[in-house]
Amino acid sequence: MNTSEFCKSFNLLDFVREHLEGHQPFSMSLEDFVVTFHDVGIIEFKPKKESQQYLALSAGVHGNETAPMEIVSDMVHDLLNGALDLRCHLLILIGHPQAMLKQERFLDFNLNRMFNGEWKKYWDKRDEICEVERAKRLEQAVNDFFSQSSANDTRSHYDLHTAIRASKYQKFAIYPYLDSREHNPGVFNLMQDCGVNTVLLFHKPSTVFSYHSSHNFKADSITVELGKVKPFGQNNRDDFADAEKTLRQLVDSTYNYDHSSRYKANGQRVFKVKRELLRVSDDSHLNVDDDLANFSSFDKGFELLSDPEEPYIVENDGEAIVFPNNNVPIGQRMALVVEEVQ
Ligand SMILES: O=C(O)CCC(=O)N[C@@H](CCC(=O)O)C(=O)O
Ligand SMILES: [Zn+2]
């Protein structure tokens, strides 16, 4: 097959399904860029014209979160076929090919709890936990990508997800802890342009993918929850139109970064984490319905987390919950208790 036939028939998700065990790297030179398929689900586009923008887009770090994978797959197809221009350095990552094949969140261990070197703690168990080597490989890809940039270049990483349950605010983002850096208003504005009107500020270092790139490369990184988990083919792509349009504008550089505080005037809600509720024992149990929406709030005095040793009783009216999950192992997050920043 020649390059043009390869590009015309290329479907990223099918290609990933066909190369689950990995493949040898290969590159193709097209008119405006060189594209390198480094490994399964790891594709880098290098523009032939100079660019100071380094953009990493990851999707499918959880294998059942299909809409973001469909979006980046279509973008790759359009790049290869000249329907989308490339004006930045671009890294596309399909996070967890094996979980994607089964449309499951993860197979052995939550991949999005393995970054920022956390996988090293599980290295001896890499034969039992398939996510260990994948976390290492993804980190390496991000490290190689951002290491090519210099101090004056712009680095960004948008880790695209969909949430298990519905949300009171349908699209929201989690801005990782920034160590000593300031939040970038441009990121809030960008989120708003993606249709994301709620941003949650995380309060401490973590092991999620967006924290890895933020912490190690000072990238403008953020985890974006674009809607609710649905099987492949059942996503209504109109629901993602603003996000998709904005991501494409980042790639072809028609997006105008705006560092004003317009997101405030436009009513973007900002929350901060008050408490992370961890499973401390087999008896830890969140007293919430399975279909309770993210950002639902409670009255003071409600026993949100039952546990013989460490229950959590709501301390103030209006405390809200995000990502409640009774199905996590001991030591992992069962929920975030959040409150709105006024
Ligand atoms: O809906 C849920 O309960 C989880 C959705 C999801 O995968 N969220 C990410 C958020 C990562 C972050 O906090 O930046 C996760 O839990 O990994
Ligand atoms: Zn996810």
From TrEMBL:
The active site is at E225. Zn(2+) binds at H62, E65, H161. Residues 53-249 form the Succinylglutamate desuccinylase/Aspartoacylase catalytic domain. Transmembrane segments: none annotated. Pathway: Amino-acid degradation; L-arginine degradation via AST pathway; L-glutamate and succinate from L-arginine: step 5/5. Residues 269-340 form the AstE/AspA barrel-sandwich hybrid domain. Signal peptide: none annotated. CDD domains: M14_ASTE. Belongs to the AspA/AstE family. Succinylglutamate desuccinylase subfamily. It comes from the Bacteria. One of its GO terms (molecular function) is hydrolase activity, acting on ester bonds. The gene is astE. Binds 1 zinc ion per subunit. Gene3D superfamilies: Zn peptidases. This is Succinylglutamate desuccinylase. Keywords: Arginine metabolism, Hydrolase, Metal-binding, Zinc. GO terms for biological process: L-arginine catabolic process to L-glutamate; L-arginine catabolic process to succinate.
